Amino acid sequence: MNDNEERPVTIITGRVWKKKGGKPEGVHVMLVAPDDDSAVRRALESLAAEGYAEAELDQIGDMEGEPDDEPHLSAFQGALEGEVSIVTFEVPL
């Protein structure tokens, strides 16, 4: 990829906790970053800034097109605009 091409939106999936030992939430973090290491670092910094005490990140990859449904569509658009977008959801225990 050369410098003139737009970078794809990266998605990172995992689980987060507001407090250590608390109830986990699923998380999808979307952002645009130059490489995976930068993406993970920015995701962790953003999660900490939002008050999450712990995070376990499972997978990272590039999105292949925009999502069809909310809230992921808005998160995708935010990522294209330079934001680190965080979507959380309940996970079965």
The largest sheet has its strands arranged as: 3-1-2-4
Which descriptor suits the 3D outline?
globular
What percent strand? 25-35%
Provide mean pLDDT, rounded.
Answer: 93
Rg, nearest Å: 13 Å
Taking pLDDT < 50 over at least 5 consecutive residues as the criterion, the unreliable ranges are none
Helical proportion?
Answer: 10-25%
Number of helices: 2
Q: Largest beta sheet, briefly?
A: 4 strands, antiparallel
Derived structural class: alpha+beta
- Which sequence of SSEs, written as H and E, runs from N to C? EEHEHE
Distance between the termini: 41 Å
Organism: Mesorhizobium caraganae
Protein name: Transcriptional regulator
Describe it:
With 93 residues, the chain is an alpha+beta fold. It has helices at 36-49, 72-80; strands at residues 10-17, 24-31, 54-62, 85-90. A 4-stranded antiparallel beta sheet has the order 3-1-2-4, with helices on both faces. A hairpin with a 6-residue loop joins strand 1 and strand 2 (24-31). The chain is globular.
What labels describe this entry?
single chain, alpha+beta
Write the layout of secondary structure elements.
Elements: E1 10-17, E2 24-31, H1 36-49, E3 54-62, H2 72-80, E4 85-90
Antiparallel strand pairs: 1-2, 1-3, 2-4
Protein name: Transcriptional regulator
